Amino acid sequence: MEISFISTPEFITFSLHIITALETPLHIFGTYCILFKSPDSMKSVKWSMLNLHFWSVCLDWTVTFFIIPFVLFPTVAGFSLGMFNYMNVPLQHQCYLFAALLCTVNVATMTVLENRYYILFGKETSWRKIRVPVLAMNYILAFIYPLPAFLNFPDQLVALPQILQKLPQLPDFILRHQIIVYATELQFFVIPIILMSFLLATEILILAKRMYTKMNSVTYKITMSQKTLSMQRAILIAFLIQVSSICSHLTTLLFQTSTMAVNFLIPITYICYTVAFNYHNQVANNICFVIFSLHGLSSTSIMLWSHKPYRAVCYKFLRFKKSETTSSRAVPVVNMHLNTMNFHSRHS
């Protein structure tokens, strides 16, 4: 039987190492831009952006370097090929870390939106009193929701034969690795994911809806000039472009950022299909994780492209002639109008 190279562990290892080599300097450059090239107009969201970037980088390096998962969909089984494997970190702990980081990235995404809402509209509302407990709860839940599957880790002597019966005859280049079954009772694995996804989706949609409503309210159109309103909308749109690469449930932005959303939509759709129809195709499994692993490149690239100050740094770095006068002149204008907006909101 002819075996495709794409179905082998060597392919997934080689591909994810290449992605790591490409994304590492880009992540470092993105961190530099956030820390040192964020103008005063973005000062209020600088640290929430850095928080999102930090967790995204952690997730990317965990997947592409420390774990390098070789998963045998439609089962929740497989083995790792990354640095953790050589450090003898149990796969059970690796899976827990991956699940927690995946959720934390989405929580950090919600934090960016919440920060923008709080700065613009929430300082004088009841949200000011509950925002810290809500955000803290989200981060705590991100590390709690994987615990049901982690604590119900199956007996491998019983679970592995059951899993192998569900799969077609595996080639020797897979069987020579120590296959670990992470979950056989999928309710411990699926239900927490559904509940956590629903919680974060609800929070993000509520924040996005309230921001959209406030932006279009008569009150804020009166207290802010049209120029300032347009600038704030531009900042919001820039954030939502990056957010949509992680939160595919913001459907209104998927058409604008289809190349970003594909990093999550295609793998999730494929995994659901394999589980529903008990379908195994290792070539597709490996491609699925390669697409997912491109999230870091996509997310950081979109961040650098969508914000004008960072884009100007990229032009300068690439030695393109690009005027930054428009961006620099906009900073005091935004600050002046933001101060005016805050003054009116306090005295209205």
Folded structure, characterized:
With 348 residues, the chain is mostly helical. The protein has a single domain, classed as Rhopdopsin 7-helix transmembrane proteins (Up-down Bundle). The protein is built from 16 helices and three strands. Strands 1-2-3 form a three-stranded antiparallel β-sheet. A hairpin with a 4-residue loop joins strand 1 and strand 2. Helix 1 packs antiparallel against helix 2 and helix 2 packs antiparallel against helix 4. The longest helix has 32 residues. It is globular, with a radius of gyration of 23 Å. About 11% of the residues have low confidence.
Describe the secondary-structure layout.
Elements: H1 9-36, H2 46-67, E1 69-71, E2 76-80, H3 83-86, H4 91-122, H5 127-144, H6 147-151, H7 156-166, H8 172-175, E3 180-183, H9 187-215, H10 218-223, H11 226-244, H12 258-277, H13 282-293, H14 295-306, H15 308-317, H16 325-347
Antiparallel strand pairs: 1-2, 2-3
InterPro entries: 7TM_GPCR_serpentine_rcpt_Srh, Nematode_rcpt-like_serp_H
Organism: Caenorhabditis remanei
Pfam family, one: 7TM_GPCR_Srh
What is the multimeric organization of the chains shown? single chain
Q: Strand content of the residues, in percent? A: under 5%
Structurally, the number of domains stands at 1
* CA(first)-CA(last) distance: 76 Å
Strands of the biggest beta sheet: in what spatial order? 1-2-3
Q: Number of DSSP strands? A: 3
CATH class: Mainly Alpha
Helix content class: over 70%
The low-confidence parts are: 242-259, 322-341
Pfam families: 7TM_GPCR_Srh
Transmembrane segments: 12-36, 57-84, 96-113, 134-151, 186-208, 234-255, 261-279, 286-305
Organism: Caenorhabditis remanei (Caenorhabditis vulgaris)
Protein name: Serpentine Receptor, class H
